[in-house]
Amino acid sequence: MKKININYEILFYILFVITPIIDSINGFLKFYNINTYVSVGQICRMAILGVLFLIFIANIKEVIKESYLPVIIITYFIIMPVFYYMYNQNIGSVMAELVYTTKFIMIILIVEVYKILSKKNIFRHKILENIFWGIGVITVITFIIPFILGVGSNVYSNGAGFKAFYNANNDLSITLVVLFIYFLDIVLKIKKFSTRNIINVILLIAITICNFLIASKTNLVIPIIVTVVYLARIVKNQDINKTKKKYIIISILSILVVIVAFLCMSDVVQKTFDRIIHFWNDLGFASFIFSERNMYLSKTWSQLVTAENFIVKFVFGVGFVFRANYWGRGQLIEMDFFDFVFSYGIVSLVLVYVYFIKIYIKSNNRLGNAKFKYTVQYICVLLFSTFAGHVMFSGLAGTIMGLVACGMINKIRK
């Protein structure tokens, strides 16, 4: 039995740590116009989905015993693409719709499979820590090296922002936020400097630089807010002895020195601030805050309320494919909350948010020392998903969200 446990942990470690590599490979192929018949990312994620689904089905009685909700959600998002066939009259549209829904289904499967294997003591608490650490190392390597070599893509047309070879800005954006919280938590708990802890400080500095380089308002603001929250918590708990205070001050000063030096040298970052100032001056407050997503929302709402069978479409949605083909706005509003409503109906919104709110409410000791980072990550991911989007229907970001949710349900086993 012990051998099986170790194999499961190795399997899941590999499946999730490679997700940044998958996204980078996709972006690399796209950047150099290398066409493949099937996306590398789709192949890898379908393999991951298949493994998770088999484990889920094999243990479905245990899942139902605790709650019917995961089964209802997965069934809904498998059936609805078939239901939307009546709008599109095209089998290809059903398959295209399933590409979207399976990305969200994978989040639910990650959480439920982790729950199943943890209850059977197949997963140890440290597996999540190891996965996040591995993702952090891979993300830094796949981001910083292209920047140093001067290859990769800018985020915006004016040259502002840098995303290496990653496909979606928001995918990378929320990943960097989650990793910043993870490594900040580690660094602020350092009691003595070992080789591993020095590496953790270096990784925190690197991830902080990555957050600034991507040039998103979110990645500029959230790390600052999170740092203030952590420092305030440490002071409130009065758990800073003189030695620990010295290490914290040294770590923070080191990070600030590196960041300031980097900002002074980086033309990309300067263009970022120029872009922010330009948009602040030219857009209204709401459009500036939501990056014009509020305008997309207004257009999509007007399409929905004037549509035939408005009530049915509002309750059950029309699917991403129909919106792209007939509503003229493309597939996404880029705020997951509203994309659920307009694509899969108000029913989907209720099911999904009840599921994730339940995870938060039922999480034991969520403000305790061991789980605090997951709580902060979880709140940030949900807010980011709601107001910035590209999380629940994205491969990399969805995987990160699923892993963060696993941290919330973790019983902190040794």
Describe the SSE topology:
Elements: H1 2-17, H2 19-31, H3 40-58, H4 60-66, H5 69-83, H6 85-88, H7 91-119, H8 126-149, E1 153-154, E2 162-164, H9 169-188, H10 195-214, H11 217-237, H12 242-265, H13 267-282, H14 285-289, H15 293-305, H16 310-316, H17 320-326, H18 336-362, H19 372-387, H20 395-409
Antiparallel strand pairs: 1-2
Radius of gyration: 22 Å
Percent of residues in β-strands? under 5%
The major beta sheet can be summarized as:
2 strands, antiparallel
The rough form would be described as globular
Order of helices and strands: HHHHHHHHEEHHHHHHHHHHHH
Low-pLDDT windows of residues: 1-6
Helix content: over 70%
Task: Say what oligomer this is.
Answer: single chain
Structural overview:
This protein has 414 residues and is an all-alpha fold. It contains 20 helices and two strands. It has one domain. It is 77% helix and 1% strand. The protein has a two-stranded antiparallel sheet with strand order 1-2. Helix 16 crosses helix 18 (336-362). The longest helix has 29 residues, at 91-119. The two termini are 17 Å apart.
